[in-house]
């Protein structure tokens, strides 16, 4: 998911999804929701999603690292952590995870990204990581959780567009924007336990626009597109080595997603709108035909499953509708990032700071719902997050310590989840679920230890400060997610009983 924030930035995010009504099949009665019948595909009709039981609401979470956590210990996995965390999420009513189904490596070691990668070089797979993805899906199925499978990434934390462009251009150097360097000063006395710092523009980082200009060459690079399609083919047609289900015949996979946060390729000097986030219409933007052609390709390979873009919505109504108004895109997505977009300051304890963030989130959810209604599709809030009360960490050894309280975050989650739930209950509005960023589970910065691949698997991806947006197993946010699921279940039971 995500990237960082600095004033105008283009940043971030990923996330996931759903929870729903009682599941029909009970593969393992130890799990609240039972299993997912291979043929119980979720489908979209006008403003709602449906499954075999009826209307389908997504109580989701971003759990992007699932394939790595589920892989063998020898490649950095941790099966016991995986099942612990899946059980924790299932116990909170989570019925959907947004996961990576891609990550790209390079011929020379690259910083700031998931490691080991699924695809170390074009067309070459690390089978142990692929088995991790199989395991992730098989374990999700048992717990009644469906997946959004993210096939690429605008941002550097999984390789993504930048790596494809580099591969296609003689391993050209990627101009990385400011990213978390876990081995930069200050360091704790035990090696590889943090803290680190962000790289700095002009010192060891490029400006953001250099990075996005480089990454967005992806849309029109013929060789990069050919490799990307080969990857889509390989994942969509894979047979799960754990449960024997073919990926494109498995209803556990709700949706294929083109990429995490694909950005507009035509960026003006000045952005529009009251928050300076919006872009003017640009029908000639190569992003738009890329969405159409790629979604047609995925649909041709996986006609029973849904396809989504992974778009944030900060670009405004014109862009949002331009990338979603294709028959091969089944539902819209939105990502809401108040700190990254300059609306919220995690070091500011004033009431007006958090109130501004809540107002923005409510308006953003209402606006994006309207845009979706106009094109007759559901919309899924598949990424949002907020830091802890990190002003409490000022002057401490690390700004993202888990000891900071979470009153702002909890209030914000209630507000934004509440807005999406209200727009699900309202038949004239289009929201069908939420998916916060991101489940860190048992991870804590205080006890972190980088593994043999230099990675700490926090909820925050490796280009961002670990602990920034993490949701921990003991956090109140998990109860907010649970109450959402309970409220929706009661609502749907009532509707369906009438
Ligand atoms: C059902 O799930 C429980 C809890 O994880 C596990 O211990 C048990 O082995 C599972 N049973 C089957 C038949 O898969
Ligand atoms: C795996 O995760 C568990 C927590 O679920 C932790 O106690 C254990 O140390 C981890 N193992 C490794 C090798 O990191
Ligand atoms: C991270 O910081 C270390 C220590 O300062 C430095 O040696 C290394 O080059 C930095 N890595 C990147 C990718 O900037
Ligand atoms: C991190 O880097 C920034 C920019 O170079 C610097 O201002 C800040 O003091 C550093 N933080 C720590 C904790 O060293
Ligand atoms: C960023 O792009 C500008 C304009 O193309 C270029 O002059 C500059 O060298 C680039 N900086 C880095 C660090 O790549
Ligand atoms: C969406 O596409 C339909 C069918 O092509 C078209 O009639 C409609 O005007 C489009 N809506 C927008 C907002 O572009
Ligand atoms: C805190 O946020 C409020 C609301 O945006 C702002 O008016 C105030 O100046 C901020 N305070 C500081 C110290 O930045
Ligand atoms: C919502 O839309 C209104 C009307 O276009 C606009 O004034 C407002 O800034 C938008 N707010 C957000 C957060 O998108």
UniProtKB/TrEMBL annotation:
SUPFAM superfamilies per the UniProt record, alphabetical: (Trans)glycosidases (SSF51445)
Top class in the EC scheme: hydrolase
EC annotation from Swiss-Prot or TrEMBL: 3.2.1.78
Any matching Pfam family: GH5_mannosidase
Substrates-to-products reaction catalysed: Random hydrolysis of (1->4)-beta-D-mannosidic linkages in mannans, galactomannans and glucomannans
The keyword Hydrolase appears for this protein: yes
Limits of the Glycoside hydrolase family domain: 40-489
Keywords of this entry: Glycosidase, Hydrolase, Signal
Signal peptide: 1-21
GO molecular function, one term: mannan endo-1,4-beta-mannosidase activity
Coiled-coil blocks: none
The organism's place on the tree of life at top rank: Eukaryota
Gene3D superfamilies: Glycosidases
Hydrolase keyword on record: yes
Stated family: Belongs to the glycosyl hydrolase 5 (cellulase A) family.
Record-given protein name: mannan endo-1,4-beta-mannosidase
Taxonomic path: Eukaryota, Fungi, Dikarya, Ascomycota, Pezizomycotina
